Amino acid sequence: MGVIHVTDRTGQRHTLEAVEGWRVMEIIRDWGLPIEGLCGGACECATCHVFVSEGWVDKLYPATDEEEDQLDTVVTKPNSRLSCQILWSPELDGLEVTLAPTGE
Amino acid sequence: MTDHIETDVVIIGAGPVGLFAVFELGLLDIKCHLIDILPKVGGQCAELYPEKPIYDIPGFPMVTGQGLVDNLMSQIEPFNATFHLNEMVESLEVLGTPEAPLFRVKTSENGTTFTCKAVIIAAGGGSFQPKKPPIDNIEAYEGTSVFYAVRKMEMFRNKKVLIVGGGDSALDWTVNLQPIAKRLTLLHRRDAFRAAPHTVEKMRSLVAAGDMDLHLGQVSALKGNNHVLEGAVVRKDDGSEHLVDCDVMLPFFGLTMKLGPIGEWGLNLHENLIPVDTEKFETNVPGIFAIGDINTYPGKLKLILSGFHEGALAAQKVHRYVYPEKRLLFQYTTSSTSLQKKLGVAA
């Protein structure tokens, strides 16, 4: 068991119980925070874009080419990731992410 | 020119669920027209994940998104549905009564109007629209200096054009607009492009020859006055910023889905989904049905197979609206000669 911390687009920080083997996008969506996840986690839409807090970026598996291609379709920062491509495991207990803004 | 079409049913959305509804309606002798905003059929399956394998379609241990769409198209072929692609339904007007519904549907692009006895909304996540980058105040420049598509190339003659993105649209328009633009700048977040290699090569040679500029980074702000763009602030990964001088910006960030005009048709909505009953999948407006990902009801699962089931049940009720005098006999394609005739497979 463990948690992730998610800051939403209004700046409010939520601590969510995480489930091993779930994608971070799924954890965020399951707790009802506004994350679209349009393609359902297929790495095809970039609507689950998050910024990963400092200190955590290097603990994640690096983005695949497929994920980088999708990140091309949003306005990124160096710490941008797609949360559907982060599989939660106990090593990620306390993972801190911020939901990226979406265009209108 | 404005066309007017009279038909039994208009299906909004030509994704897998809309396509299969053609089959279920066709077996009941109900004619339909499908409208989709994309230039091709298949919805998300064809647009978002054509190559991705799907494992939960009954009877198919594995099928790709495009494979499923192709199979559905051949399955519904006997019913000769008419497709109106590249068109978005703009308005849906109720003309009839709850007992004898009649609707007028109007599309935006060609202004085609339809009169029909039932409408089936199978619009998935809504209509595909260009993804807008979250840049402060970008709305102020939309339509004057910021465009998400190129309708007339001439508009960009002698302009300082900034194209943003790394996919096919961004690269295609880069090489197409470069000869007529005063100066063209391509901006992308990294020095790798997912566009077709020969287009990328062409862009690289233009850059090497000094005929255009390539910048790496992201637009962080727009500069301008009174809806007229003067420049874009570009932030690099190291945090440094510089200004790119430009009159127009063309961001090509792919497509996303928005509910769009559906929200304005007087239907009950719950978190951008359309509540329906689970007997007929009808909305709060008699004669308007919602099937597939766009609907919601207790226990709803957003699965393609659920949408197929919903279409089959909705078709039963649609039959009552289209043929109020006819009794509907439940039949199987395995045994009914009349169904087999419709499918063109009767012995």
Automatic annotation (TrEMBL), chain A:
Coiled coil: none annotated. InterPro entries: 2Fe-2S_ferredoxin-like_sf, 2Fe-2S_ferredoxin-type, Adrenodoxin-like, Beta-grasp_dom_sf. The keyword Phosphoprotein does not apply. The keyword Transport does not apply. Keywords: 2Fe-2S, Iron, Iron-sulfur, Metal-binding. Residues 2-103 form the 2Fe-2S ferredoxin-type domain. Gene3D superfamilies: 3.10.20.30. This is 2Fe-2S iron-sulfur cluster binding domain-containing protein. The lineage of its organism: Bacteria, Pseudomonadati, Pseudomonadota, Alphaproteobacteria, Hyphomicrobiales.
TrEMBL record, chain B:
Its cofactor is FAD. The keyword NADP applies. Its EC number is 1.18.1.2. FAD binds at D36, Q44, Y49, V89, F128, D293, T334. Keywords: FAD, Flavoprotein, NADP, Oxidoreductase. Binds 1 FAD per subunit. It comes from the Bacteria. The keyword Cell inner membrane does not apply. Residues 8-298 form the FAD/NAD(P)-binding domain. GO terms for molecular function: ferredoxin-NADP+ reductase activity; flavin adenine dinucleotide binding; NADP binding. It holds the Pfam family Pyr_redox_2. InterPro entries: FAD/NAD-bd_sf, FAD/NAD-binding_dom, Fd--NADP_Rdtase_type_2, Ferredoxin-NADP_redctase_2. Homodimer. Belongs to the ferredoxin--NADP reductase type 2 family. This is Ferredoxin--NADP reductase.
